[in-house]
Amino acid sequence: MEYIIKGRNVDLNDKVKEYSYKKIKSRVDKFLDKTNKIEVKLKLEKNPRIRENKEVEITVFVLGSVIRVTDTGSDFFEAIDKAAGKLERQIKKYRDKLTKRGRKNHGREEAAENFGKLRTEDLKKIEGKIRNSIVKIKTFILKPISPEEAVTQMELLGHDFFVFINSESERTAVIYRRKDSNYGLIEPTI
Fold first, then answer.
1. Of the given ranges (66-70, 128-132, 162-166), which has the lowest mean pLDDT?
2. Contact status, residue 184 vs residue 176, Cβ threshold 8 Å
3. pLDDT digits (tens, 9 = 90+) for 88-145
């Protein structure tokens, strides 16, 4: 497992590095078996109005998932302690989610190992299966309309998303209904 520690606007001393390594790695090792990488970013905000100006961001890369927590403190040791506590709660939540699904290993480890071993014949078989699983193909004419009109069209059709050309940016865009009942707009940039 790879452990990376970075600092922004701060020179990291060995005490802070050792403390973060001991505190964070012990929590991760205690609850997770298959961790690929842990990234710790320590930041110092130079704004004098911010009392808790030390920030710690911890990112744990587990097979197929990413767990990230951030917390602040008046010194890095306090921030590391708070973030490590949050990290432990997030890891427990992640493990409970996997256990509820009944997939402790959840097959991603095997898939990751086998992916590198795939031959072109196997890839063609997989592509064929995907192609066969597409059961309906729709074609439609894209017209330049505003995002507001796209929402109206989407609601009239009773769909969760609508593809259109945004009349404001003249690019293909997607409007979609979010879980919180609001709308999202996706516009690609080139």
1. 128-132
2. yes
3. 888 888 888 777 766 545 455 555 555 555 566 667 777 777 777 877 787 878 889 9
Give the three-state DSSP class for 115. helix
Q: Which residue has the tokens 């095997």?
A: 110
Q: Which domains does the chain have, with CATH numbers?
A: 2-101 (3.30.160.100), 144-186 (3.30.505.50)
How many other CB atoms are found less than 10 A from the CB of residue 12?
14
pLDDT at 11 over 50: yes
Q: Confirm if 186 and 166 have CB atoms less than 8 A apart.
A: no
Which among 174, 172, 152, 147 is positioned nearest to 162, based on CA atoms? 174
Contact partners, residue 80, CB within 8 Å, separation at least 6: 16, 19, 20, 23, 24, 56, 73
Sheet containing 35-44: order of strands: 2-8, 35-44, 54-62, 65-73
Q: Distance between CA 143 and CA 165 in Å, rounded?
A: 6
Picking from 26, 27, 30, 53, the residue whose alpha carbon sits closest to that of residue 42 is 53
3-state secondary structure of 168: coil
Query: How many C-beta atoms surround the C-beta of residue 161 within 10 A?
Result: 14
